[in-house]
């Protein structure tokens, strides 16, 4: 079982799968045993409770405040547009690490 579960959410779960692959490579290079997957925002209620960190793609950023309010115990943030556009796996892993560190997880 992975040390951490990082789940990305986007409009359909498709474009984000490219970023997931880059994140898996970056996490492995850092020696992190993470399970990383992407899903449609429609799957949030089912998949988010299983995740240590939830990252929203820019196309669903509009839902961030609503989700944070509805789930105050979840670690949720959005992926910056530039990071997402560049498919910056290393940067996105760093973003997840930062969120986990801030919450002491």
Characterization of this structure:
With 105 residues, the protein is of the alpha/beta class. Helices cover 43% and strands 20% of the residues. It is built from five helices and four strands, in the order βαβαβαβαα. The chain has a four-stranded parallel sheet with strand order 2-1-3-4, sandwiched between helices. Helix 3 links the parallel strand 3 and strand 4 (76-78). Helix 1 crosses helix 5 (89-102). The chain is globular. The two termini are 16 Å apart. The mean pLDDT is 94.
Quick overview:
Helices cover 43% and strands 20% of the residues.
Order of helices and strands: EHEHEHEHH
Please state the overall shape, judged from the principal axes of the Cα atoms. Answer: globular
> Strand percentage, roughly?
15-25%
Largest sheet: 4 strands, parallel
In quaternary terms, these chains amount to single chain
For the residues shown, what is the average pLDDT? 94
Structural class: alpha/beta
User: What is the β-strand count?
Assistant: 4
Distance between the termini: 16 Å
Q: Please, how many helices? A: 5
Helix % is 40-55%
The spatial strand order of the largest sheet comes to 2-1-3-4
Low-confidence stretches: none
Radius of gyration: 12 Å
Protein traits:
105 residues; alpha/beta; 5 helices; 4 strands; 43% helix
What is the element layout, followed by pairings?
Elements: E1 4-10, H1 15-29, E2 34-40, H2 44-47, E3 53-56, H3 64-70, E4 76-78, H4 81-85, H5 89-102
Parallel strand pairs: 1-2, 1-3, 3-4
Helix pairs in contact: 1-5
